[in-house]
Amino acid sequence: MLLIHCPYCDETLPESEFAYAGEAHIARPADPSATTDEEWRDYLFIRSNVKGAHYERWRHVHGCARFFNAVRDTVSDRFLTTYPAGAPRPALSDLEASE
Amino acid sequence: MSRFRVTGKGRVDHHAPVRFTFDGKSFFGLRGDTLASALLANGVHLVGRSFKYHRPRGIVTAGSEEPNALVGTSRGRGRFEPNTRATLQELRSGLVAESQNRLPSLKFDVGAINDALSPLFSAGFYYKTFMWPKGFWDKVYEPVIRAAAGLGRAPETTDPDRYASRHAHTDVLVIGAGPAGIAAALAAAKAGAKVVLAEETAEIGGALLSDPEVVIDGAKAWNWIAARAADLAESGVRVMTRTTAIGYYHQNMIGLAERLTDHLDSVPENAPRERLWRIRARHVVLAQGAIEKPLVFHGNDRPGVMLAGAAQTYLHRFGVRVGDSAAVVTSHDSAWHAAFDLQDAGTGIAVIVDTRTDVREDLVAEAERRGIRLRLGHTATGTDGRLRVSALRINPLRDGSVGNGTKVFCDCVLMCGGWTPSLHLFSHTKGTLKWDAENTAFLPDRKSEAVEIAGAGRGLWGYGAALDDGAKAGALAAEALGLSAAAPTHDVRQDRPGTGTAHEELPTDHDRGHTRAFVDFQNDVTAKDIRLAVREGMRSIEHVKRYTTTGMATDQGKLSNINGLLIASNALGKEPPKVGLTTFRPPYTPTTFGTFAGYHRGAHFEVTRKTPIDSWAAENGAVWEPVGQWRRARYFPQGSEDMDDAVARECRAVREGVGLFDASTLGKIEVTGPDAAEFMNRMYTNPWTKLAPGKLRYGVLLGEDGFIRDDGVIGRISDHRFHVTTTTGGAARVLNMMEDYLQTEWPDLDVWLTSTTEQWAVAALNGPKARTVLDGLVEGLDISNEAFPMMSVADCTVAGIPARLFRLSFTGELGYEINVPARHGRALWEALMEAGKAHGITPYGTETMHVLRAEKGFIIVGQDTDGTVTPDDAGLDWAIGKAKPDFVGKRSLARPDLVAQGRRQLVGLLTQDGKVRLDEGAQIVDDPNQPTPMKMIGHVTSSYHSATLGRSIAMAVIENGRARMGETVHVPTGKGVEAAVIASAVFYDPEGGRAKL
Question: d(Cα B668, Cα B363) in Å, to the nearest integer?
């Protein structure tokens, strides 16, 4: 069972308090009606599916109930960082340096 | 006293006999024995038949790696366990054990015909043998294979035992309480760390228990162990014996299975049998030692052939000689010590065969001093005997060729092919291994967790090396936690360091195509099978494993992995590290389902959610139906009614009089705040801005992909407050989805979301007499049709209880849903039943609710929709606020596939024979005479008998269904083909007047 740091509670807690919520930094288009079919398809379905550092969303569903973002290595299952929703995407170079 | 028991030897109590039975025969062992040592003390080696060939098999090891001595054990009714390892099961008074895989008896097993037919059962035989004739698989091959397959027999009744589970946190967890583990635990504890020391067997000491003459810091081994046990206690180390670490999970969480009562003569009432621990450690020390490797030669599986180290353990730990005359065959120094110790105890050593020509001088000198016949540079090429070994065939090796064989008579063969570091747990962490050519072993390399590996686990041999390495590992673990630690060194005398060499199958003068040299005893895999797999094209070791089954099942390669690898790499002509190792998977040893389930069984397996009205339903004979985690009243049978009778009566009551239904399970979400209407506009398809406070509207929620996710009636309580209802099963999902959009897409909206599902109890009153019943109970509200029309909501009191009253209808009749605070739910219900008594009020359940709504063509999300249904498909186009610029899923409604012709649309379906009720999920075709596979044009989503209409009704999704009204389609069933006519899904009161009375 993973331990996950909730950036809002500022506590590291067991995975069973959290729920995964898909890839992060995929903003809903401000005006969906202005998107082409291809753009809308990409927004709906196309995900990066990376092997390695993955930007993803989690929800502290059995805690503060907030959604937040995380960078997790999909090979080792190790969390590189977690940060509040809306915060900019941290650069990978910074994360690896701080390990 | 059996002649194989050595008086005064071992850690058993020679004055405490313990009676047990094996295959119905009564035996005595001693307190402190394992089942295996007690059997050996009685001269019993033959304990089972092998899995595939049903060959007679004996005890091979003295630990949890045992592949053969798997027995069924029982303790009274229901308490039967298959595949208990006799080497781990401590003897208890009255233990009942039975051998496995034999019919009718261990000594005469008809399944042994498989052994004679072994050419048929070579590697991959499943894939080759049963290909034809085609029809034979179902009727002949599979039933026969199923009857013959399996390891042991499954218990036949519910497990009556209790199982426990617990979480724990510690600074340092040390796994394995041999010399390295003890030293590690003490070094870490003395530095101030909180330490847990886990040991699989009944007591600490590990290999030292089998080597009592070793002297550590001036104390003999067993005295040293006793002193360290006191030290551990004094240092606050929590020592957990009978506890196997079964899995190593992320971030240093270790799963451990603790055996609590299987060793006790009688079990305290309600005591748990086993306990699963989840221990989170800041640092872990793996000190699991090494597992002795068998040698691979023809007939190496005969009862009486065992590992030399196991014989040494049986002698020293249990005071049991494994035979009268032992032939030793080895490629490692350690077996020489075992031979000397056995000879001291009175077992004759017929020969020591070492494959090496160059053996340590002191060992050779000692053997010669003892008068033991030595055969250096020899190989073993066969054994004699049927149910017990009677001779070993040995041959000299000269310049790479095998000389003539001679037989050495014996009643046991002690083999040693070197030692394999036990790195299963380390491998669970995805730590990498590197090949050590000198030790012919994989050793730990790159670590992925905060872990140290100590002692034999990283290829160190000898007690001095293990102790010092353990202390160092314990100190490192403590230092990693910021403590300052010391790693004491140890002065060890009479140490038994050793080295050896490794072999694949031993050299032989037999045709290797015909030898039965076993690599994996448990799965009956021979060296020949592995070579065959390579010859037939298996290149990856993972493919070899699956094709031959070597290293599978409970063995997980403990004994077989390295031998299998060496044989495969030789056959492939590649270096072992290039071939690689198969993946070790948890659990390390077989673990009972009970241990994993723990408290989560029976009523505790999953919570049962009950409404505030549940107790009334229980008292009034409700038949239950699980809906999500809720239990709901499905119908209320009277007298001898069956479900159809009860539902027909309940339906008639609602259509003709009045019925009462517990709708408390409906999901409820309160949406409040200045931007509540804007939020609702963005979430739901419908427009909300103009909905006046006090009014209700049916809302549809889509996913962003345009498909229906949920629906429900939504009330506007005030400008800034909406009372949203969801489906019973969808409440949590809908709230999660709302929170997601609110928090991450529209954080600018000033809205609060609160789940109120469990705060409201809801009674749904339906039927033409509903107002009559309700009228006398309502205060503070005029509920006449004019003042409180269909789709209204208002606060009032009902039966003196503050209530939020909805006027709506999911049945097509005049209806109200009365929401009251949950604690008043039952009082409200009883007040309504009392007030309705004069009008024949009838409680009804979910089944009746389903029929009534289907008669009206109202959908149930998840039954009539399946995640691929758009509002238009479901005939809900009218619920879409087309003027709204955006809502979740709106853009997708213009996706090419969603506007394409030929989509499946929800329609009604009337069978030509009104007595026929179609199966829900049944497929629909146009032409029932077309060849299979037929083109399916839709399926039935809902199907009931309608008492109101006096016939069956169904709902279905059918391609272009709405344009095909009146056309006949066909539904193939198991019994034939039913013809049905496409119709409107609104079967009853199409104008909807009854709800507006």
Answer: 81
